[in-house]
Design goal:
Elements lengths: L22 H7 L11 E6 L3 E8 L18 H18 L8 E13 L7 E13 L2 E10 L2 E14 L3
Antiparallel strand pairs: 1-2, 2-4, 3-6, 4-5, 5-6
Family: Belongs to the thioester dehydratase family. FabZ subfamily.
Catalytic activity: a (3R)-hydroxyacyl-[ACP] = a (2E)-enoyl-[ACP] + H2O
Organism: Sphingomonas jatrophae
């Protein structure tokens, strides 16, 4: 499967799937930590192509205290952030071993849609695909699902850059 604008910074898709990745491996890939780490596990990852990850949405999440008392639902912006974090893992793991010392910076969101509320006690599935690459900038499409139903979807743009010294 080809992706428009293939570039050496992020290699073309391969058949060499990676996964699963546990929480320690997720934390090694992302700089995020509690309470902003929103990916718990990677089920599968095809470098240069796609990722399937999960987030266990617990009543213990701090955002449920105020969103909303008596009717807790996960804020839509955090669902998009979870998709962006999954995209970050995909982009970094697609660098062919050159991800050390790199960060993934979110640049834009397009066409975000929220289809259903995400309540505590569910396992949210995150599916993200690279749709375009140019040098260090990638475009992704992603969707979040609960019990097989799409609860949110968005397109995003991000870049891979060196970590500050």
């Amino acid at each position: 499967m080809g992706v428009a604008g293939d570039d050496a910074a992020v290699p073309a898709a391969t058949d060499a799937a990676i996964g699963p990745l546990d929480i320690r491996q997720v934390m090694a890939a992302l700089p995020h930590r509690y309470p902003m780490l929103l990916v718990d596990r990677v089920e599968s990852l095809v470098p240069g192509e796609s990722i399937v990850a999960t987030k266990a949405v617990s009543i213990n999440e701090p955002f449920f205290q105020g969103h909303f008392p008596g009717r807790p639902i996960m804020p839509g912006v955090l669902i998009v952030e979870a998709l962006a974090q999954a995209a970050g893992i995909l982009a970094l793991k697609s660098m062919g071993g050159d991800e050390e010392g790199k960060l993934f910076y979110f640049m834009g969101i397009e066409e975000a849609k929220f289809r259903a509320p995400v309540e505590p006690g569910v396992l949210m599935r995150l599916e993200v695909t690279i749709t375009q690459r140019r040098a260090t900038v990638c475009k992704f499409t992603g969707r979040a699902l609960v019990d097989g139903k799409v609860v949110a979807q968005a397109n995003c743009t991000a870049m891979v850059a060196d970590r500050p010294a």
